[in-house]
Amino acid sequence: MSRVYNFSAGPAVLPEEVLQELADEMMDYNGTGMSVMEMSHRSAAFQDIIDTTERDLRELMGIPDNYKVLFLQGGASQQFAMIPMNIMRNRVADYIVTGQWAKKAYEEASKYGKANKIASSEDRTFSYIPDCSDLPVSPDADYVYICENNTIYGTKFWTLPNTKGKDLVSDVSSCFLSEPVDVSKYAIIYGGVQKNVGPAGMVITIIRDDLITDNVLPGTPTMLTYKTHADAGSLYNTPNAYCIYVCGKVFKWLKRMGGLAEMKKRNEEKAKLLYDFLDGSKLFKGTVEKKDRSLMNVPFITGDTQMDAKFVKAAAAEGLVNLKGHRSVGGMRASIYNAMPMKGVQTLVDFMKKFEEENA
Ligand SMILES: *Cc1c(COP(=O)(O)O)cnc(C)c1O
Fold this sequence. Notes:
The chain is of the alpha/beta class. It has nine helices and 14 strands. The strands form four sheets. The protein has a seven-stranded mixed beta sheet with strand order 2-10-9-8-5-3-4. Helix 1 packs across helix 6 (about 240-255) and helix 3 packs parallel to helix 4 (about 100-110). The longest helix has 22 residues, at about 260-280. The chain is globular. The model has no long low-confidence stretch (mean pLDDT about 95).
């Protein structure tokens, strides 16, 4: 067996212990004589899996009782429409646009009502988070929307915006479970799981229960109504059962590791190693304003596209893969999610040092 260090932004690295458990249970899950992939979602065995998965997530994040946890399909992108369809009751919402994902969400909401772009960092290629302490929040806005960690650009909101009393909706796809959060500060907090949690094909939406009503925009499909899934315990139709099971394994792994406070500590140590190197390097440099740097996605460049390409290729030959930056920004990006061990980041930094000596 030969495993690489996978710096992909998503689908991304999963903990090796979890992958091993999945392999061990592939042919016979817990004495059922079948794989979870083959199991009815109405079976007692699967009900136990989804219940345990939800319970462990609630424990990890300290989710208050007045929030529902929904396991939904359609990825994070489906939420871009589902959110306005369900909670844009005045048909007004304010969006803070800090990258491609926030921009897509903003554009989608514009189909359903008046989406206001109240702040943006597009003027400097989304390399910073705008000051959100006193924004012109619309008096009739149904919510204020952010993308909390910008996967492509490598920025993170370290302070939540002042929403002036409006509900906050946050896409946390690429920082999900990377640190403790106060769920009560959000109306909806959601993430596609393929970045920091599990396999592709599912989004977890944590939503305050007063927002789950039949009062949705006319024409909203049954499948895109939060109430449908909340009333059915995420089992209205066949869910992504295997993905729920894998996420449950990852939640158990996170609990064994010491929970989200411990993950934050580890993530800070890993990111510091890489950022400190970038700050002292003569060849490589980070592209993001220091105060807004993400712990999860670290973009960097040499300033020479040919040198960038040479680096990505040479790194891959050493088993350091998927370091190419997003097609919209170029350069490199190292995604160092929860499941990336310190050793992976150390190996990357050692390789960058060597490459710098040989190419400076
Ligand atoms: C990847 C990503 C998305 C899109 O996720 P899909 O599951 O592919 O729809 C949305 N938001 C953020 C922040 C992401 O990183």
